[in-house]
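worker-03 picked up job from queue 'complexes'. Input manifest follows; two sequence lines, order preserved.
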Amino acid sequence: MKLFVKFDHHALCTKVLKDKLACLGIPHEVTAFGEVRFYQQLTAQELGQLTVRLAEEHIEIVESQKAILVQKIKDTIVHMVFNDAEHIAVKSSTYLSEKLGHSYGFLAATFTDATYSSIESFIILQKIEHTKQLILSGDLSLTEISYKLNYSSVAHLSTQFKNVTGLTPSKFQRIIEKRKLLTGQ
Amino acid sequence: MNKDFTHIILADDDVDDRMFFTDAFDELKINTKVKTFKDGVYLMDFLNKHGKPVPHILFLDLNMPRKCGMTCLQELRQDKRFDSIAVAIYSTSAAEEDIENTFVQGANVYIKKPSDFKSLKKILATVVALNWQYHTNSLNRENFLLRI
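worker-03 finished. Artifact:
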C-alpha cells in the first residue's frame, strides 16, 4: 500500500532545530522562524560543534557565516593596505576576489549589507588611517607615503585625505601636535 | 550586527534644532538611541551622575547658555571615563581658528551647521557611519578628526 504525507514545514524545521540545540545543552530560545537567541556568548568550540550538528540536518548558520566572510574581507583589506600596497599590481577588486575565492560582486554586496559601508570606502578609510599613522611617525614625507600606499601622485593622496577628513594632511599633523602639547604628552 | 545601537547624546538649547537632529537620526540606516539635553549643565550633570551606557557620540552645540560646548568639551577630555566618546561640535561659525582650537581641545568632529534638513541628514549620516567604522574596526580614536 502507499500513503501520502503532508508536511508542516515551519513546525518540522523548528522541531529539528530545537532537538539539535537541545543536544548541545546551551541555554537558548528559538525566537522566530530561523532565529535563535543564546543567553550567553558561544565559545569558538561550541560554535564549531553547533555548526557541525546543524549541518547534519542541512541547516546552515547564515548570519555568522556572513559575518565571518565580512571579517575575512576586512582582514584582507587591512593586510593589503598595511603590508602589500606597493607590491600589488592588480586592482583591489581583483585582489580580493582572488584571495577570497568569491566574485567581487558577491563580496561587495555581502560587505555593504553588514557594515553600512562599501568595500571601496572601507579601503579608502584604511589607507587614510594608515597615512595618518605614517604622517605622525614622521619618518616619511607625504610623497613617500603616497608611493608606499600606491597612489598615483601625492596630489591624489592629499585630495583624498581632504575628502575623507575635511582637513589637509599638514593641518591634521599640526592639530595632533598641538593636542599633545596641551595634554603634556 | 544590525541590532547594535549607536548611543547618541545631543546638547542644544534650541528646541527646533533638537527636533531637527532627532528626526534626522531616525531616518538613518544605522540604529540609534538618542538622548537630548537643553544645555551644558544638564548634560554634564547627567554624564557625571549616570554616565552609563557611555554614549558613542556626543553632539554639542558650541553656543549654549549656562555652560557652552567648549567648556563641556574641556571637562569631558579631562575625565578618563569619557575617553571613548567621540565628540562632535557644531556651530554656525566657520572661522579657521575656532575650528582648529576645538580639534586641539579634543573634539573629533567639527560640523558647520547647514541650513537645510537634507544637508544635515547627509552630514549626520556621514558622522555616524564613520564613528561606526572606528567603533567596529578598532581604529585609533586619537586620530579620528573630521571636518564637515
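worker-03 released lock.
The longest helix of chain B spans residues 117-136.
The two ends of chain B are 27 Å apart (CA to CA).
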